[in-house]
User: Fold this.
Amino acid sequence: MSVARRPAFLFDLDGKLVDSVYQHVLAWRAALASAGIDLDVWRIHRRIGMSGGLLVNALLRETVRPVSPDDIAGLQRAHAETYATYASSVRPLAGRAGALGVGVLSGGYGQDELERAGAYRVYEDPLDLLRHLDEVGVRSVD
Assistant:
């Protein structure tokens, strides 16, 4: 019996393909500390996987500190700058199995971050990925 093989995509939003959780925790801790906010690492760790804006809102709620859009933007910028110093220590996990990695900007990370993490290509959103399937070796079936 022959089994038809079809291309598949696995979307990773929370570190199943690359192990970057602790680099993010440390970068968020440094970003918060630069703004005079001291939070325990475990409080940050349990929020990893959220988008930057949601994470900042959730963490700042725990400090009972008012949050402005400028606060959020500043903390996200500080996180990105610090994370860049840790990015070289991010490693693919073994469950990746040689799969091709692509990035989609809808997850809250910038194109440069996704490329530094090893993305073969980066797309604006899932529709942009669909329009460019040929770039990742997939033919559209009509």
Q: What stands out?
A: The domain at 16-95 is CATH 1.10.150.240 (DNA polymerase; domain 1). The chain has two domains: 16-95, 100-142.
